[in-house]
Design brief:
about 300 residues, alpha+beta, Glutamine Phosphoribosylpyrophosphate, subunit 1, domain 1, four-stranded antiparallel sheet, 12 strands
Length: about 300
Amino acid sequence: MYALAIHGGAGALPRVPFTAAREHAYRQGLMQALDAGQRLLERGGCALDAVEAAVAALEDDPLFNAARGAVLTADGTVELDAAIMDGTGLRAGAVALIRHVRNPVRLARRLLEDGAHVFLVGEGAERFAEQAGFSLVANDYFITPDRQRQFEALQQRRQRVGAAAAPAAIALEEPPLGTVGAVARDQAGGLAAATSTGGTAGKHAGRVGDSPVIGAGTYADNQTCAVSTTGHGEWFLRTVQAFDIAARLRYGGCSLATAVSEAIGRLVALGAAGGLIAVDQHGEIAMGHNTPAMFRASVRAGEAASVHLR
């Protein structure tokens, strides 16, 4: 039995409702990413390949806040983070402050396979990419007209309310075009998770959130579950959210659904906003969020795929 779930961000709904065409585009983007991973799982492929393929598809879709279409920093540039983890042997690869690699999740996968290190950042990560044969792109490849307009609006707002305005608070008022991620169980029982993001709109240059941090935004262990988070990254870092879900299963004996529900409840108590997706060793999928919307899709062997925006 295989299972696959993906997300495209959690957050507020836009002040102006989506047009039918815009909503269709989001649904289509999620389905294309889900299909990219499902095709591999159906053929007996491993969970690690499936989550990489699904997240890479979302990175290539300019509607989502990962790679092309990512939000801009306060400096008007794009800085990208990604991680991938294999529940078999707890192998992991993570990269942050990426400015010139088209698909950060594929770079994270290459780092996982290399095995010498788990986490590389900035120029060192991009030197590793060049040595591994990745072609680099200009930073403006990632910047779309929508994100440029968002950046300009954020700059204008900061001028009105002052430079001390919190970028995270402002970003949560934007549509849920956030962090992307995937979790999977393959037919052999292997679990994997991957997460990729442009971070928070208007973030301070050099800021790294939870997405590339193993145990915070991304985690997989064949004995428990695989998790990918999205939302207020600083809180997911503080609560080590992805590992917390796995720990609830391993040490508390919780079901996946209970663990996810309790984790979302904790976010509410802390005043944090976001969501997560998870799949356990039995192929059960659980998804939760405390925001008005979370873009997500899932499928299991023998079942129809589902897509939800709210």
